[in-house]
Every structure is written in structure tokens, then in C-alpha cells.
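Protocol step 4 of 5: obtain the predicted structure for the target chain.
Materials: sequence only (see below). No template structures provided, no constraints applied. The aim of this step is simply to have a reference model before the mutagenesis design in step 5. Sequence pasted as it appears in the construct record:
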Amino acid sequence: MNLIRMVVAAGCLWATAVLADPPPGYPFVDFDAGLKAAHASGKPIFLYFGRYGCAWCEHTNKTTFSDAALKKLYSDNYELVYVDAESGKRLTLPSGERITEAELGARLQAFATPCSYT
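Step 4 output (C-alpha cells):
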């Protein structure tokens, strides 16, 4: 859990998504793959929470994440991890504990989406 706290710092983005999808065109991966990539690259994680039916997620994906300079900044400097804040998909914390994406969202207090942590 300490690794997660080190790579995530609060910062919620308020903005609209019809689907629980990461912004198109970005190299977002799931949590387990993102932790592995961050360990290998030494880059910090940009953890992005969305959820099915979130209009603000869709709005953010279409407006904020459509900026080419922002895409380059995030892609070059972070391992991009997408988590569905309501998903029952299981992931593995650095401690080895297995929890769901929804449980990770609750632990990190990602109660409104979209929400991101770096």
C-alpha cells in the first residue's frame, strides 16, 4: 500500500463518459500491468478512475484529453493506469492483497468520477 501512496497523490478532475473507458488514443493499461510497467520504467503512475455512465468522464475524455500536448506530457512522463471505479475486476496490490477495482476506488476515496491520482 505504501507504493500506491507514493505513486498516487490527490487530484480530482471534474469533467463527462457514457462508457467506462479511458481516453481514446492514450496508452492506458490495467492496474496490474501499470504497476509492473512503473517498476520497470521508474516512471510514476497516473491513475485515472472512470465508471460506466459517467457523463463527466466522457466530457473530460473529449475535451481535456483531446489536447495533443497533454497526451504527449502524460504518455512521456507517466505509466497510465485506468480503473473502473465500480468494477468487480480483481487486481493485486504491491502487498499481494487481492481487491477489486471498486475497492481500490473506495480506499483512495475516488467517490466521484472522473478522478485521477499521480
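Step 4 remarks: The radius of gyration is 13 Å. Residues 1-19 have pLDDT under 50 and may be disordered.
Proceed to step 5.
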